[in-house]
């Protein structure tokens, strides 16, 4: 038993942009693990629709929100990076936005909805909400969870009132949850980060990042995590909403490594190393969400064209263990022996 009140100490990490569907959440819950809906990149209405639909099948789930900036932004760097992408844009026949676009991802509106329509768990990534956010959600009965990547971030989250933490190691796929995206993120096993956080914080911990088999799950549980989150290993499952181009790339032997890069969205994220990343890694800038919106037309065109060499194929270091088939099979496999 864990604080998430599930049969199994396994969590389906929220994966914004399509993979985390209601169907995936339903199947994860049915398998005895804890599901998250990913509210990132969605309108309040879209988030509400998913919550309503999932609530008809389970009352034990979480919703994940992006915490808005402020983050560094330099207009000259933006213009320079846009110029560097011109050849790729021409290749796919798309126009990249000349004017930078900012967004808070409907932060206040989503919080208001979750206050008025409470869910069991609300988690946060990309930053640390103010203490009053935790107080407001606690008042309506929601358990609050913050994704952290360092002991210092864990201590700050505890001070502000988080009820639990996701400890994300740097080998996780997709975006790093770091509060400071411009910092250098050194490689380290999740076990090392988890151990360091446990030394300074006594909140319940969920470990995430680089999980590739049942032994990795057991190792993190034995080290003090109450649950282990997996994301990349669910991307090829039947119920995931992963796009076909991304899904096929994960099984393509042409791709042999992953890397952290800000070249796709302006925020560090781990992806399969492809031609786009090789070409633009050194030019990449820290500017989220401006770069996210800048490269969006190119990434959409690459996805439609079935061109993984120019797509943000998010993947953790354990991506080669990702299986196709029902998510139940992956969860059963990962929880063998615990």
Automatic annotation (TrEMBL):
Q: Which GO terms describe its molecular function?
A: nitronate monooxygenase activity; oxidoreductase activity, acting on the CH-CH group of donors
* Reported cofactor(s): FMN
Does Thylakoid count among this protein's keywords? no
Q: Which reaction does it catalyse?
A: 3 propionate 3-nitronate + 3 O2 + H2O = 3 3-oxopropanoate + 2 nitrate + nitrite + H2O2 + 3 H(+)
Signal sequence bounds: 1-25
Task: Please name the Pfam families in this protein's record.
Answer: NMO
Q: Which UniProt keywords apply?
A: Detoxification, Flavoprotein, FMN, Monooxygenase, Oxidoreductase, Signal
Keyword rRNA processing in annotation: no
The GO annotation for biological process reads: 'de novo' pyrimidine nucleobase biosynthetic process; response to toxic substance
Similarity field: Belongs to the nitronate monooxygenase family. NMO class I subfamily.
Protein name, as recorded: Propionate 3-nitronate monooxygenase
Protein's organism: Rothia aerolata
